[in-house]
Each structure stands twice: as structure tokens, then as C-alpha cells.
Specification:
By secondary structure, the protein is an alpha/beta fold. It is built from 17 helices and 22 strands.
Length: 498
């Protein structure tokens, strides 16, 4: 009997504090059956959620938001412990996440409610409407670098659109997902519209095959391809937010002090573990040396560590240090210079800031996502060359442009092949819920946030209502010669003139 109980025991995994390696908690690895049970519960709850209507869902989501905000410090502590980021960064993440819940709740109705559209001359006897319906159940697979803010871009907008959600957080940050699910359950224990399942890659794969109506994935491009292949087996639609190799362009007239401050934030914040952070900087030749000197001074003052006063924390994913090391080695071997730090900057999970210059464009430090506190600063002739180099990447997530001529910045933004561009700031879009977010190329497809994010988690429902019989009866197998003659004349007069 004891052997049977042992065999039936659910396997677990440990959540570790990356700052110390200490075990924070153990969580179950949800298998196919457990995931299927969660999806089945979500399916039942989705029917209740649907009949709440936009107004009812808005009220529930605002209550959910309030509950999170009131207990923000508790949630931030979980984020900090599991990711290693400083407390202030964790609180900032909570602040931004609740803003998105608020916006999605308040804007779902006007974005998704049924509206009348023009029927056109040929169908003047019809009234035409377009509306949006929820998919039903959305599976969300979240990342570890921003374990609350990033998946909330899918969770909140899915819920606001009328879907139930089953959330599979990263195995590095499962406690964040569990905290959220418990908070929802405390508000509506009988209606599990939002649930969390914990586990490893097998759990994520199980979610993709459990009959959900859509998957929202955030993670590496390589993993996204595996998720996409799994979803293809059942034609389950997917929105994928993958990696980035975001470029920052500094024009000759830029405010260098401001540009340097944003560059340091975008490149080193969260230990560089930001998909839309700054990984490549292209600076116009006349101001290049000045910019490099200022940036070197700024990042040299940063102190990584595991305390509340640290500039940033450790690598949340241990093997990321090896990736950073490999890119530094490749750049240096190809002739790059380390003007700040270098291979000696790596201290286990902690990495001191590294600035590389004169990096060949075929180096992995240029071509592959780094996800560490390392940034490349290369000289370009002008903004045009900077745009050309920025667009040479297979990634197309975000970019930034620094210039005192904001119109020139906007023109440059239009030429950059990516999903979002900020002018004279870095990551400025992240706190604007109305702005859709997503990438092109290897950075993924689909959008979260904004009205497009609400539509991403909805299906379009078109409706035509005939009001009266049209004099020209064309939608019949018994068309009259007279009706066709008049129709052909109308076609020529309406569309065939000139």
C-alpha cells in the first residue's frame, strides 16, 4: 500500500531564490490530467463569465485590480524573491500590471461591442453589424523576467474580452502565478475564471493540447517554434511575444545626458533581462566618443547585488551567464573592445556592467539576444546608417531614437522594422496601456495591450439582417434577364467609368 501511495505522489519542483540558491517553495508539476481538469473547470466558468457581460466583467476585474493593489507589497515580495530583482523594481512591475487590468476592464465594451457598419449600395436592403465574441478558454504561458507585468498583458485582456484563463507561469517564478490565482479565488471561489497550473515544459505542452481555444506565449523564439508546432496539430491559434535585439539610435543633435540615462536603464535594468531593452546602440560619429565616455561613467557606478539598494540583481536563469560569456568572448575574438568590464565581470549569477565597442556586425553580441547587462555601442555615419544596421536584425520587437528634432525621430521610427519605437525615451510605451505591443520576424506575431490586444483574444462575429426584399433579385438561382441587364449597367456606371 505504501508503494502505491508513493507511486501516486504528484511530482514537484522547487522554486529557488537566484540570489542565494535557497529553496523558496515546492510546487506540483501538473501532468496532462491535471491540466485537462483545469481547462475543463475554466470551460464551465467561461459560460458564467460570458453572461456577466461587459459591465459585469468590468466590475469583477476592477475588484481584482483593487485586491492586488491593496496587497501589492506581498506580491512584490514574491516577484523579488523568485526573480532576484530589487524590491523597487518589483513594486514598479505591480504598478504597471494593475494599470493594464484597469485599462482593459474600462475599455473592453467600447472596443468589442457590436456596432453597425455600412452595407454599401448593392446591399442597401441589409443592415450590417460587426461584433466580437470571446474565444472561450485562453491558455497563457508566461516568462520569468517580468513574471507579473508581461503575462498580465494576456491575462487581463483575455479576461476583459470574456475568456476564462489558465495560466502556466515559468518554472522559475511559479509563486507569482499561484499568488494571482489565490487572489482571484478569494474574490470568486465558485467561479474559477482564472486558474494557475504549475510545472515545467511538459505542463506547457499539456496546456497547448488540452483543448484551449487560444494560446498566448511569451518566451524565446526557439521555444515559440515548438509551441507553434504543437498548436498546429489542433489548429489552435497562437499569439507569440518572443525575443528581441532592440537598437537605440543616437543622432548628432541628441541630448546626450538624457540618452545616456535611458541607455543605462534600458541595457542594465533588470540585469539586462528585458526583451525590449537596449542591446545595441548606434551613435552618430560626431558625438560617439562623448556618448561612450558618459555611458561608461554611468554604468561603472552601478552595483549589482542581492540587497534592496542594489542597482540590479542576478541572472534569474543560471545558464544565462554562459550565454553572456559566450557573446563577450565572440566579440573580443573578432576585434571588439571592452571599454567597461569584460570577461572578469562575470561572478557566478552576478554580472557587472559590460560595454563593448567596435563590435563587428556578424558577432553574436549583435546578432543574438543577450539577456544580460551587456551592451554594444557602435559608431555610425548618421541616423540613416543607424536605421540600416538596426533593420539588419532578424528580430523586430522594439527600438528607440534620440534626437531633439522630434519630427525627424518620428520619420526614423516609421523606417524601423519593429513593433514599437520610442522617441527620446526607452520602454516609454510599457506604461501606456492603449498602445499595442508585439513584434515582427523572430520577435513573434500578434499583439497584446490596447484595443488590438482586446481584439487579439476575441473572434469576429459579422451579422447581416435583411430589412426588405431588394428590387433586383440576384441571390437566387432564378435570376431574371431584366435584373441582370440592369445590374451590368450599374456595374459599368458605378465602377467602370473613367
Amino acid at each position: 500500500m505504501t508503494d502505491q501511495v508513493t507511486q501516486m505522489k504528484v511530482p514537484t519542483f522547487d522554486s529557488l531564490d537566484p540570489r542565494t540558491g535557497d529553496v523558496l517553495a515546492s510546487y506540483p508539476i501538473a501532468d496532462d490530467a491535471a491540466v485537462q481538469a483545469a481547462v475543463d473547470r475554466a470551460r464551465a466558468a467561461s459560460r458564467w463569465w460570458d453572461i456577466q457581460g461587459f459591465s459585469g466583467r468590468k466590475n469583477w476585474l476592477l475588484e481584482f485590480k483593487n485586491a492586488i493593489a491593496k496587497d501589492a507589497q506581498s506580491l512584490a515580495a514574491v516577484i523579488s524573491a523568485e526573480s532576484g530583482k530589487p524590491d523597487e523594481d518589483a513594486i514598479l512591475e505591480v504598478m504597471m500590471a494593475v494599470e493594464h487590468i484597469d485599462w482593459a476592464a474600462r475599455n473592453a465594451e467600447k472596443t468589442l461591442e457590436q456596432r453597425k457598419v455600412s452595407s454599401g449600395l448593392i446591399s442597401a436592403n441589409q443592415k450590417a453589424y460587426v461584433g466580437y465574441r470571446p474565444f472561450g478558454v485562453v491558455g497563457v504561458i508566461g516568462p520569468w523576467n517580468y513574471p507579473l507585468y508581461t503575462p498580465m498583458g494576456s491575462i487581463a485582456y483575455s479576461l476583459a474580452a470574456g475568456n476564462a484563463v489558465v495560466f502556466k507561469p515559468s518554472e522559475l517564478t511559479p509563486g507569482v502565478g499561484v499568488w494571482l490565482a489565490k487572489k482571484w479565488e478569494s474574490l470568486a471561489p465558485a467561479q474559477l475564471v482564472f486558474q494557475t497550473v504549475t510545472g515545467d515544459g511538459s505542463t506547457g505542452a499539456a496546456l497547448c493540447t488540452a483543448g484551449v481555444d487560444k494560446i498566448a506565449f511569451t518566451g524565446s523564439t526557439a521555444t515559440a517554434k515548438k509551441v507553434m508546432a504543437t498548436c498546429a496539430q489542433s489548429l489552435t491559434p497562437l499569439v507569440a511575444e518572443c525575443g528581441g535585439k532592440d537598437a537605440m539610435l543616437v543622432d548628432v543633435d541628441a541630448d546626450l545626458d538624457a540618452a545616456v540615462e535611458f541607455a543605462a536603464f534600458g541595457a542594465m535594468g533588470n540585469a539586462g533581462q528585458t526583451c525590449a531593452g537596449v542591446e545595441r546602440i548606434y551613435v552618430a560619429a560626431p558625438v560617439y566618443e562623448d556618448f561612450v565616455d558618459k555611458l561608461a561613467a554611468a554604468v561603472s557606478a552601478l552595483k549589482p547585488g542581492g540587497t534592496g539598494s542594489s542597482s540590479y540583481g542576478p541572472m534569474t536563469l543560471g545558464k544565462q551567464s554562459d550565454i553572456v560569456r559566450g557573446q563577450i568572448e565572440d566579440a573580443l575574438a573578432k576585434g571588439a573592445r571592452a571599454v567597461v568590464g569584460g570577461l572578469e565581470s562575470l561572478h557566478g549569477p552576478y554580472i557587472d556592467p559590460v560595454i563593448l565597442t567596435d563590435v563587428p556586425e556578424n558577432s553574436t553580441a549583435i546578432t543574438e539576444e543577450t539577456f544580460g547587462p551587456t551592451v554594444v555601442v557602435n559608431k555610425v555615419r548618421d541616423l540613416d546608417e543607424g536605421i540600416e544596421r538596426a533593420n539588419a536584425s532578424v528580430y523586430g520587437l522594439g527600438a528607440s531614437v534620440f534626437t531633439k528634432d522630434t519630427e525627424a525621430g518620428r520619420r526614423a521610427a516609421e523606417r524601423l522594422d519593429c513593433g514599437v519605437v520610442t522617441v527620446n525615451s526607452v520602454l516609454g510605451f510599457a506604461g501606456i496601456p492603449a498602445l499595442p505591443f508585439g513584434g515582427t520576424g523572430d520577435s513573434g506575431f500578434g499583439r497584446i495591450h490596447g484595443a488590438d490586444g482586446l481584439r487579439e483574444f476575441s473572434t469576429v462575429k459579422s451579422l447581416a439582417v435583411q430589412q426588405f426584399a431588394i428590387p433586383l433579385k440576384l441571390l437566387t438561382l432564378n435570376r431574371k434577364a431584366r435584373d441582370m441587364k440592369i445590374s451590368k449597367l450599374m456595374l459599368k456606371l458605378r465602377h467602370g467609368r473613367g
